[in-house]
Write a structure and sequence with these properties.
Blueprint: E1 2-12, E2 21-30, E3 33-39, H1 47-50, E4 51-56, E5 61-64, E6 66-68, H2 80-87, H3 92-97, H4 102-111, H5 114-129, E7 133-139, H6 146-159, E8 166-174, H7 185-202, E9 208-213, H8 220-232, E10 239-241, H9 249-255, E11 260-263, H10 269-278, E12 281-284, H11 286-291, H12 300-306, E13 310-312, H13 326-337, H14 341-347, H15 350-355, E14 373-376, H16 383-386, E15 393-398, E16 401-402
Parallel strand pairs: 1-4, 1-5, 6-7, 7-8, 8-9, 9-10, 10-11, 11-12, 12-13
Antiparallel strand pairs: 1-2, 2-3, 5-14, 14-15, 15-16
Helix pairs in contact: 5-6, 6-7, 7-8, 9-10, 13-14
Bound molecules: fe (iii) ion (FE).
Amino acid sequence: MWDSIWINAHLATLRAGKYGAVRRGALALAQGRIAWIGARAELPGEPAQLAREVHDCEGRWITPGLIDCHTHLVHAGNRVREFELRLQGASGEECDHAGLGPAYTVAQTREASEMELVRDASARLKRLMDEGLTTIEIKSGYGLDTATETKLLRVARLLGESGAVTVRTSFLGAHVLPPEYQGRADAFVDLLCTQILPAVAQAKLADAVDAVCDSAGFSVQQAQRVLEAARALRLPVKLHADQFSDSNGAALAARYRALSADHLEHSNEAGVRAMAEAGTIAVLLPGTHYFLHQQQLPPVGLLRKQGVPIAIASDCNPGSSPSGSILLMLNMACTLFGLTPEEALAGVTRNAALALGLGATQGTLEQGKDADFALWNIDEPAELAYSMGANPCAGVVKAGRARA
Ligand code: FE
């Protein structure tokens, strides 16, 4: 007998990255997994005889639980002063001089207690979870010393402890240069590879290692050293690549068989082709593109042509994407990048799961996968990408249990 069965629902299964819609469907769960999925008419009996609990979804849609596969959720404070100053005409340099910019977040984050970080990140996480989110990736990268980087990753792990959401952590020591290493990027990369990353790995705090390979971050050579160090520790890698210039980041990510290469506004065709061959997922971040008024669009046509799966994420961070909404990212992926609503939804389900190495258990509604799904008050799945600022989420099931 199944634990529960969900009837009178339309299912967007997202199998193979398409809606894969099953109208008047049914979904049966057992031991936290999907035990049966299909048309209600094909159920092998009466629901009440098949499962201990029967849930009437009253014609709602069910999608896989949403996945935000790129966030900097754990950080202290915000950058609202910088936001205001910039809109009064201040340059980036002037903001840095005023002690704002990334250095401000690093200083605040180093000072913050673990409890304060948990409190602030929990509030951000709750907003995402209220929108049907069941899995999130959280990066470090605002500590840039061993004590603070491990503190951030411990906080991220803690956020997943209740089981209400799956948390995957990434160590992003190569994010920005800390103030004490200005002008000494190679020395900082030494520190990352020989001290901070080994400490993080020893404490088993990171599921993956990330680096920023860009004109505004680290060079290909520097990023490569971080990826080598990760490989030596047998940790999967990913990369912030080519956001502000073509730094051959996409090709570098592919060379290291990265789970994902993220941003990609300036990536070239050879890099995209290499990603396709390596199975590296493209993660596009429309919130950042919007907030920074970026002009260059990511190479969506090339990604489609080469068959690179596209994921969409919030990049939630105080400097360039102070976003609390994954649903808004669906809308922006369509309006800014020209994705179809179907591609956008696949981007926060199936393809986001692939970008985290979780494709076997998450991201689609299929028998045997985790029973992680969201219920929606919508008439068709495209509505999730159509609305700006609406939240039609009517409930979330995580590992087979309805989340309060
Ligand atoms: Fe990022």
